[in-house]
Amino acid sequence: MEEDHYYPFGLTLNTTSNNLLTGQLYKYQGIEVKQFQITSQTNKKMKLLLPFFLLISLASCTAREPDIFILPDNFRGGILIIYNQKNGIAPQYHRKSRVYVIPKNGILKTQFSIDSDWSALPQFYYSSISSANRIRYVYDAKEIPENDVIAFGGSSGVANKDLAGKQVIRFATYYIGNKSIVDTAYQRLEDIDIISLAE
Which pTM does this prediction carry? Predict the structure, then answer.
């Protein structure tokens, strides 16, 4: 007995066919298209390949370098990281993590190239790397508290130095503070002319 299951866009699962991938023609809005069937044998092969793809995905994640930010005591406001600056701060590491020592004005030019794919959430500390100095990081804007100081952000961007877009400045922004401080810092960073700051 043949058993077919409905899937969106005309895709069907045929549990009795021995073919890996079969297809038939049908019309959609007057256009002849091919309707594919995923068979049970295909499903078994996909299950065998899934751990392989998962391993590749995890390996690519572990290749990334986590970020650590060290801030001046009681720092509040926006952080702007400008990457690929020849005269910027030389790369620093703590174990396998990148270390960014943020100046009082919150603007850091670094020789690091941007590494926008996170393998772990960024870590923020006042003065030095210790659990007592750690600032809690939140990744959802809805979780920014009204009173407590947190770290937030991590969006990256590109500023074009020329109209053709051949010369670009890569940067990232973060924020330290409560909701009102973060909102104010966001507006301040929006008004900064990144091109004039970069080399």
Answer: 0.67
